[in-house]
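agent> fetching stored inputs for the nicotinamide-adenine-dinucleotide docking request
agent> found them:
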Amino acid sequence: MKILVTGGAGFIGSAFVRLTLGDGAQHSLVNVDSLTYAGNLENIASVERHPGHSFVRADIRDAAAVAEVFAQHKPDAVVHFAAESHVDRSILSPEPVVTTNFMGTFQLLEAAKRQGVARFVHVSTDEVYGSIPEPLDADEQYPISASSPYSASKAASDLLALSYYKTFKMPVMVTRASNNYGPNQFPEKLIPLMISNALEDQPLPIYGDGQQVRDWLYVDDHCRAIHAVLAKGSPGEIYNIGGSRALANLDVVHRILALTGKPTSLLKTVTDRPGHDRRYAITSEKIERATGWRAQMNFDLGLKSTIEWYMANLDWVARVKSGAYRDYYQQNYSDR
Ligand code: NAD
Ligand code: TYD
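agent> prediction call returned; pasting tokens
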């Protein structure tokens, strides 16, 4: 099967590309990415010369560029990762978030409709459900109640994608994963930021009381789930993908301090994020029943191997941090 992957130079997309082109690859990939601050060709250097991989630098908001990619490569399926993926950036600068996440998805759906693809997996997030009160775990019927421009733009793109199933009978499936962690994640999200700051003896910024709860999913477990949906999911369906590992942020950060051997004096409470969701929690029963997929990575082992990856790749961290990242944080967060 020829799969058009969008955002395949980012954190999760590149893990999907590496996994798919690993031993005994059954698929070829066309990887479309505009290489924003979060897209990095180093993430896919190991498959650069793989015969089943073509990289196209293009912006998914550009209808003509997207049409050209479809016309040239004629993919059988689409796995759509490309997005502006960071909540804090979406608060400070919502425009690229709204245009990429909503209009970019629209351009892909239109091109895929014209082409008549066999499968379209729209990769989304559990954040569309908003904060979930204890002791509930949201299933796929749980009402959408997005809090940030990021989660609202993802919720809107989920609805648009599902409308292409209802209206045009396009074989669209939506996946909603919980918080991912693993190698190659840009150090702006909680786990890679805390690891890289700890390794540099920099303060670890805790938003508010640090008791917000997130469910942690190892990135390769997420990628295997997407393959399971691609192979066995039913068109028009939504599939939650969780790691079954809910932890308060402070708990995660204390584990990072312990594993890196750094002192708790690095912890620094900073102003809370506006509209901060208190708790994300989902059930993955539907995908487990439908496909047999289950999250496999134990959180402590996954966190340890993630820290080891960052320690072995300090040059990667320095390179990504020396770009837009530093300017952005210095301009916008004087207390962090
Ligand atoms: P990321 O920010 O690491 O990577 C996004 C990629 O998309 C980058 O390579 C970037 O260059 C590319 N991109 C951005 N705008 C583009 C555009 N206009 N045209 C073409 N390419 C563009 O993101 P990620 O963490 O890998 O997330 C991938 C997907 O998974 C997103 O759709 C996100 O909403 C979803 N998701 C992420 C998480 C998480 O914890 N990171 C959890 C659930 C769902
Ligand atoms: P983040 O990784 O941005 O993911 P999301 O907001 O999409 O869940 O944040 C995860 C949690 O960590 C969230 O509750 C916000 C918190 N957080 C901090 O306390 N400090 C930080 O520096 C960051 C980036 C996040």
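agent> quick read of the result: The chain has one domain: 2-182+217-244+281-298+324-332.
agent> awaiting further instructions
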